[in-house]
Amino acid sequence: MHAAKPLFDYPKYWAECFGPAPFLPMSREEMDQLGWDSCDVIIVTGDAYVDHPSFGMAIIGRLLEAQGFRVGIISQPDWQSKDDFMKLGQPNLFFGIAAGNMDSMINRYTADRKIRSDDAYTAGGLAGKRPDRASLVYSQRCKEAYKDTPVVLGGIEASLRRIAHYDYWQDKVRRSILMDATADILLYGNAERAIVEVAQRLSRGEAVEQITDVRGTAFIRRDAPEGWFEIDSTRIDRPGKVDKIINPYVNTQDLQACAIEQEKGPAEDPNEAKVVQLLPNPAIERDKTVIRLPSFEKVRNDPALYAHANRVLHLETNPGNARALVQRHGEHDIWLNPPPIPLTTEEMDYVFASPYARVPHPSYGGEKIPAYDMIRFSVNIMRGCFGGCTFCSITEHEGRIIQNRSHESILHEIEEMKKLPGFTGVVSDLGGPTANMYRIACKSPEIEKHCRKPSCVYPGICENLNTDHSSLIELYRKARALPGVKKILIASGLRYDLAVESPEYVKELVTHHVGGYLKIAPEHTERGPLDKMMKPGIGSYDKFKRMFDKYSKEAGKEQYLIPYFIAAHPGTTDEDMMNLALWLKANGFRADQVQAFYPSPMASATAMYHSGKNPLRKVTYKSEGVTIVKSEEQRRLHKAFLRYHDPKGWPMLREALQRMGRADLIGNGKHQLIPTHQPATEGYQSARRKNSTPVGSKKAGQGGKILTQHNGLPPRSHDGNAWDKREQAKAAAEARRKAAAGGSKPSGKSRKPSQRPAVPR
After folding, report:
1. 195 contacts 64 by C-beta, under 8 angstroms
2. Which of 142, 148, 189, 282 could join 95 in a cystine, given CB atoms 3.0 to 4.6 angstroms apart?
3. Which distant-in-sequence residues (6+ apart) come within 8 Å of 186 by Cβ?
4. Which residues lie closer than 8 Å to 548 by C-beta, 6 or more apart?
5. 741 or 77: which carries more pLDDT confidence?
């Protein structure tokens, strides 16, 4: 592999000389206005084009523009024919394909495989503007339009499908997306370095087939190159008597660099005879070593081998020590180079300092794009996550080494944001994948380089992890002090087991940056599912809650936590969900909406779901199985436990509790979960309806929008989307029904809402 190169050499005075750049062109007319006869690169995306650094197509487009390339955008094309893919003409270098900020299947289908009624990344929130497996379809259409033009796949959808992967929607293992998409090369993870190098090399006339040494890329090849040493994956994950029995995620050949593992000492019996095992020639460098995963045909037919391949892939994710991977598909190999080198702070600053317009393209005519409305006044301060949660794809895509922006870069973006129409002085978020991982890293770069653990915070916080939050606290204070900034909120998810390591941070957060409620994600209360998620025990939540309540009281504020939980995660039994429901009731929580486990491609929890094996440990045919929730009936039951307060689920829960021998939880007592009798449907109101602020109320916000209230939490505002309109219509119909039944005549005025939200008991 080539060593990491500086990303950018474009003059820093770009913005000073030329001012804000126009949008990247989406039509021939816009190309004519720029004086272009053709584009060098055309990016095809499944999202509406928003020129904002929270949208992938904007980052890649502006980055290539800064390198001197002419970049066009084809947003949400009609995929039924090749015509829409030809509207900007043939690109001189390549088509760049991305499904969008979300996986197209997750974007379109719920966890129950039902089609969603909206799309947050489309103007007007309309669904149906992108096809299933959009990256694959777009790539095929581009090849149909211009068969000789290289196609470069990127984005999270391609990243998570770079090898043979379990597809939840078809319930089978599919080939690498490269095979089906007929693309030339795939860029996975944070692709800034890779896209710049690929574009520059293509511009110099190099054939795309010859670009095989760029980190963070995958491509098809027939034969392994000369000079490479190949290792069968089953050899590197077969601990035996000759191996030091340690954390299997640590590379045994690099142990001298890891102080923690070094302290554990040898585990072999010195009196026991040893079998001599020949290791690879130590003179062979790691960057010339490739690990062969079981072939597509094998993992398709053998769930245990699938779990093994998933485990090995996750072992090879640290850019400091990861080796190349190869997987056979029929007569071809899918070759994956090691992950990209993380961006430095200076490079991150450059990426976010491009002259973004920070608004949607004018062609949408002012139509609302819900995803943009959510983030337009927020700032992304970092990338990556070292949490390693098995159900999440952030680590697989962005990596576990945190990439930070400087204070100056972040504050400059806030200053730019203040110029946008509609800014009221409230910054809705300073965050990222995890709000409080900013500038947190391993104490030793050498240990970080050699570590192969999947998480820095499970089963506990690694003693080599620097948990200092001082830089983040300083950033918060600087941002609050900016003229024109009234409030800085933190809306990104918080890693509370990290936060409690810095009471000063918790105090700063609670005193100044919580808008009434703060979301955190314990995900469960029981050890079984938490271990399969690689999440801390509920005791960490309790500790954080005590600190949160203490500092809220000291600040004279009434504030609440929103805990999020997952139903039907691998490793979860019916008893686990029952105990979680009891905990929820004891703590006074009534969730309006619940989340069921969604098996996304390549996640470790998805490997558990498909194989019934635990890839966090050595996978064998005899290894312990994982409890899996697959039937629709059991998934509904687990969701019903989370919504224990909803009468619609009580019949199912009564039957389940009786079957489990826990009929003692059925009754009207304080410590019982559900009542014995079903209420009459006529007088029942859902928790969402009961906690909604009626239209017209003084507390309903501007424009009379409905505010919903999680039990024990302050009201939350909505943006006037289709859901709000449906709820308003339902409320009006209910008022008319009551009036017709002899109740009080609706006057158009709402009841006065409670001055104080219900406090969890």
Report:
1. yes
2. 142
3. 152, 153, 154, 158, 159, 162, 177, 178, 217, 218, 219
4. 506, 510, 518, 559, 561
5. 77
Following CA atoms 689, 691, 695, 696 in sequence, which dihedral angle do they give, to the nearest 10 degrees? 160
Beta bridge partners of 430: 379
Write out the DSSP string of 733-753.
HHHHHHHHTTSPPP-SPPPPP
| Other Cβ atoms closer than 10 A to 235 | 12
Percent of the chain with pLDDT over 70: 80
Here the tokens at position 530 are 């938490």
Q: How far apart are the first and last CA of the chain?
A: 59
Pairs from 170-176 (Cβ < 8 Å, separation ≥ 24): 172/300, 173/296, 173/299, 173/300, 173/306, 173/610, 175/296, 175/329, 176/218, 176/296, 176/327, 176/329, 176/334
Structure-token pair, residue 252:
């045994």
Average pLDDT, the chain: 84
On whether the CB atoms of residues 186 and 218 are closer than 8 A, the answer is yes
Pick the closest to residue 399 from 411, 416, 385, 387 (CA basis): 385
Closest CA to 570 of 620, 521, 622, 638: 638
Our CA dihedral for 616, 622, 628, 630, rounded to 10 degrees, sits at 120
Of 622, 660, 628, whose CA–CA distance to 641 is shortest? 660
Asked if residue 347 lies in contact with residue 190, where contact means CB atoms within 8 angstroms, the answer is no
Residue 547 contacts residue 503 (beta carbons within 8 Å) = yes
Show the tokens assigned to 629.
């929730």
pLDDT digits (tens, 9 = 90+) for 379-431: 999 999 999 999 998 888 899 999 999 999 999 999 999 999 899 999 999 99
Closest CA to 600 of 181, 166, 46, 309: 166
Backbone angles phi, psi at 579, to 5 degrees: -65, -35
* Residue-by-residue DSSP string for 253-268: GGGGG-HHHHHH---S
Determine the residue type at 159. Answer: S
Residue by residue, what is the 3-state secondary structure of 18-43?
A: HCCCCCCCCCHHHHHHHCCCCCCEEE
| Helix axis angle, 503-512 to 538-554, nearest 10° | 50
Q: Which DSSP helix (H) or strand (E) runs through 72?
A: strand 71-75
Could you report the per-residue pLDDT of 269-299, keeping only the tens digit for each?
Answer: 444 444 444 444 444 577 789 999 999 999 9
Q: What is the largest CA-CA distance in the chain?
A: 91
